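Exercise 7.
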Amino acid sequence: MKKIVVVVEEVEAARAALQWALHNLLSYGDLIILLHVFPVTKPSSSVNKKQNNHNSITNNRKRALRLKGFESALSFKGLCDSFLSAKVQIIVKEGDQDGITIAAMVREIDASALVAGLHDESFLYKLIKSP
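Solution. The predicted structure, written as tokens, is:
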């Protein structure tokens, strides 16, 4: 059984990458892992806010980002449903946008393949362009 990690992003390139993986990589019994990484929520720098109120706002924002990521992953799962052999798992995780969290998850999962759509804001392009 192969574990194929597909990066979930709200861009057409990511959907095309999933379609490619379904048609070219997936075999019977393989597991598709839909991975969405949402940005780390940083506390605002307002000095006047009470700590409890600040934590509540940060937690609400984090919850909203997690929910949006899960909804995106569910829409990707809909593409997988037409493939009867596709077993699908969804992971939504807070992390960086430069690929470190994705790479760590791929290692942790012990994935056979990583599939990501290439676009202007892709973490892969950022890795290539960094010094």
